[in-house]
Amino acid sequence: MAPTNASDLLLRAEAVDYRLDGATILRGAWLLVRAGELVGLIGPNGAGKSSLLRVVSGLWTATGGTIALLDRPLRDYAPRQVAQVVAQVPQITALDFPFTVRQVVLMGRSPHLSRFALESAQDRAIADDAMRRTGTLHLAERLIGTLSGGERQRVLIARALAQQPKLLLLDEPTANLDLRHELSILALVRSLVRESDLGAVAALHDLELAARACDRLVLLHQGAVLADGPPADVLTPSLLRAAYGVEAQPFADPVTGHLRIAVSE
Predict the structure, then answer these.
(1) How many H-runs (helices) and E-runs (strands) does the chain carry?
(2) Residues 162, 168, 172, 174: is their CA dihedral positive or negative?
(3) What is the CA radius of gyration of the chain?
(4) Contacts of 168 (CB under 8 A, 6+ apart)
C-alpha cells in the first residue's frame, strides 16, 4: 500500500471490499488523496474504477475496510454532509429538462441550503465564480441542451465547484470528447486542484492522457490495486501485461517528453 503517514489526506480508503449479489467487485482496494493532487484511476473495463468512486463517495456501502473523509469516518457523515465535502462529475449525460447553464450550476448549492430554501445573493455569487473559473460564465443563459460536449462537461465541473468541495471525483470526464477537449478538461481540473488546494480523482481509460495529466496513478485489476505511484512507476511493461494482457513498452516522446506507450500486435 502507498504510504499513509501524511497529515493532509482528504480521503483515506483502506482494505475496501465491495460485494454485490454474491459477486466480488472490490477486493482490499485502497485510495489515498491529498490536497493539491490529481489522482488517476486506471485499469481495464470491469476493473472496479467506477465502483471504487461510488463506494468512497458513500453512494454504495463498502462490505469491508475503512473509509475516512477529512480524517473522519465516512459512516459518521449524513448524505448532505458528504455532499459538502465531495463533489462528483459524471460522464457527459443528457439533461432532458430545459435548464439554463446558470440553473444547472446553482444546483451545486443544494447541499448548503435548507429544505425549500431559495438561493441567496451569496449562492448566486458562488455559482458565478464557479462559471468564471471554468470559462462558462458567457454561457450562463444558454440552455444546457444546446451546448457542445466539451462545454457541457465544463458546466458539470462548474456545478461541482459550486458545492465548494474539498474533493472532486470524476468518472470518465473525457468520455466521448475529441482530443482537444480531452486535454482542455484535464488541464482545467489540474489548474483547479492547484489553485483551490482541492484533491481530485479521475477514472480514465486513456493511459497516455492519464500519465500526462495526473500526479499519481492507481492501477486496478479485477477489483484490486496492482500499483499506486507516479505514472512512470505504474505504467511499466510488467504491470501493463498483468492488468491488460498486452505487451507494451512505455517511452518518453522525443518531442514533448510526455510518456507514450507502444503496444505490440
Answers:
(1) 9, 12
(2) positive
(3) 19
(4) 86, 87, 88, 89, 157, 160, 189, 192, 193, 198, 199, 200, 201
CA 102 to chain centre: 22
User: What's the rounded Cα separation, in Å, for the pair 162 and 151?
Assistant: 17
171 close to 91: Cβ distance less than 8 angstroms: yes
Contact, 25 vs 51, CB < 8 A? Answer: yes
Give the separation between CA 48 and CA 63, rounded to whole angstroms.
15
How far CA 21 is from CA of 18, 53, 188, in Å, comes to 10, 19, 38
Q: Using the structure block, give the residue that is written with the C-alpha cell 454561457.
A: 139
Q: How many Å apart are CA 112 and CA 139, to the nearest integer?
A: 24
* Torsion angle in degrees (nearest 10) through CA of 199, 204, 208, 209: -60
Contact (Cβ atoms closer than 8 angstroms) between residue 195 and residue 188: no
What is the value of pTM for the model shown? 0.92
Encode pLDDT of 176-212 as tens digits: 888 888 999 999 999 999 998 899 999 999 999 999 9
Please check whether residue 119 is in contact with residue 110, taking contact to mean a CB–CB distance below 8 angstroms.
no
Residue 224's CB is within 10 A of a number of other CB atoms, namely 16
Residues of the chain with pLDDT under 50: 2-6
Residue 101's H or E segment, with its range, is helix 101-106
Extract the C-alpha cell encoding 5.
503517514
CA distances from 82 to 65, 164, 166 (A): 18, 12, 10
Cell of 43: 485499469
